[in-house]
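Sample 3 of the quickstart, ligand zinc ion:
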Amino acid sequence: MSYVKGLKCRECGKEYPKEPLHVCEYCFGPLEVNYDYEKIKRAVSRDIISKRQPNMWRYRELLPIDGEPAVGFDVGYTPLIRAKNLAKALGVKELYLKNDAVNYPTLSFKDRVVAVAISKALEFDFKVVACASTGNLANSVAANAAACGMESYVFIPYDLEQTKILGTLVYGTNLVAIKGNYDEVNRLCSEIAGKYGWAFVNINIRPYYAEGSKAFGYEIAEQMGWKLPKHIVVPMAGGSLITKIWKAFKEFHKLGLIDNLGTKVYGAQATGCAPITTAVKEGAELIKPVKPNTIAKSLAIGNPADGFYAARVMRESGGWGEDVSDEEIIESIRLLAETEGIFTETAGGVTLGVTRKLIEQGRIPRDESIVVSITGNGLKTQEALAGRLTVSMTIDAKLSDFDELLKKQNKVYDAKD
Ligand SMILES: *Cc1c(COP(=O)(O)O)cnc(C)c1O
Ligand SMILES: [Zn+2]
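Result:
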C-alpha cells in the first residue's frame, strides 16, 4: 500500500503524478513527494513502529515506495550514542552521536537514500541505475545495484580517495572518472540522464531518493524516547540531508508521534567549500557557487542543488551555519576517535569541528541536548591522516627491547615478581 499522493513543486505547488520527474515544467522548481498524512496518521503509532524490525523500513509509510523494498533490507537504525567522554572534552552536558559510519552495507548515510532510489527505479521499470557522486554515493549505488542484479554506471571526479574508488570498483560497476570537479560531473550526468533515460538516483529520481534521508531524523526522535534534541549539527554537501532531517522532525510532530518541535538545526561545511554557510552568515538569499578546495571531498559540492532550502531550514529553526578549516577537520577526527572510539571520515570531522566552534561561540548552550550527525566511516578517507600518524615504536622481538622502550617512555609498571 502507498501513502504517496504524487509529486508537488516546492515553489509553485503544482501537483504531478508519481513518475520519474524532478523539475516543475512551469517554474523549474524542484519536485517533492507529497503524502496523504491523514491516512498515515491512521496507520502508524509509537507502539506500531517500536515493534518493527530495526531498520529504516520501520517508517515505511513515510517512504515513497509502493511495494516492498527491492534492496537494502538492513539499512538504518544505526546507534545513537550518549557521548560522555566527548561531552566532557567539549564542556557540555548532554551530547549524542548518531552514527551512520556503521550503516549497512557501505558505511555511510548514503545507503539510506540509495535503498529508496533503487527500489523506486525498479518500480518504474528502469534497467540501468546511475549516479553522480562525491564518493559515498558511488560505493552505495555500486553495492546495492550488485545486490539486486541491476546494471550500474557511476560517475565521479577523478581525484577521489583511493578507498572510495576501490570500494566502488569491487562491486563490478561501470565506474567513469571525469576530469573535473563534482559540479562538472553532475552537469554531464544531467545530459546523460536526458539522452539515455537511465535512473540517475540523485538527478531524475532525486525527489524519491532524497526522502530516504528522513529516516536519519525519525531514528533520532525514536531513539531519544520520542522526543527531539534541542540542537542538531548536520554536514552539508548538496544540502539535501539537512532539509530532510528537518522535514522528518516536522512530519513526526504533525503525526503526533512527538509533542514538541523545538530543535535548532545547524549546517556544517568545510571552509574550502562553504557556499551554504557563507550565505547563512551573510544573510544572503542566493547561494553563490564556489570552486571546492578541501580534504572533505564527500562534501565538496560547489553549486549545491538544495543550498537555498538548507539555508532556509537553518533560518526557520533558529539554527546557524558554520565552517571549519582542513586542520580543524583532522583535529576533530582524532578527538572523536580518542574520546569515543569512533573513526569517522572527513565529513564527520567537519560536523564535530563545527559543533565545537558553535559551542565556543556560545551559539549552542552547554547545558542543552546536542546531536552530532556522523555520516561516514574514517576507513574510507585515510589519506586525510597521511603523515600525521606513524608507528613510532618498532623493536626486535625481544623482551629486553620492550623493557627499554617502556623506560624511554618514562612509564613504570611493576613486574609480577
Ligand atoms: C553526501 C554526504 C553528505 C551530505 O549530503 P547532502 O545531502 O548532499 O547534503 C554528508 N556526509 C557524507 C559522509 C556524505 O557522503
Ligand atoms: Zn513549479
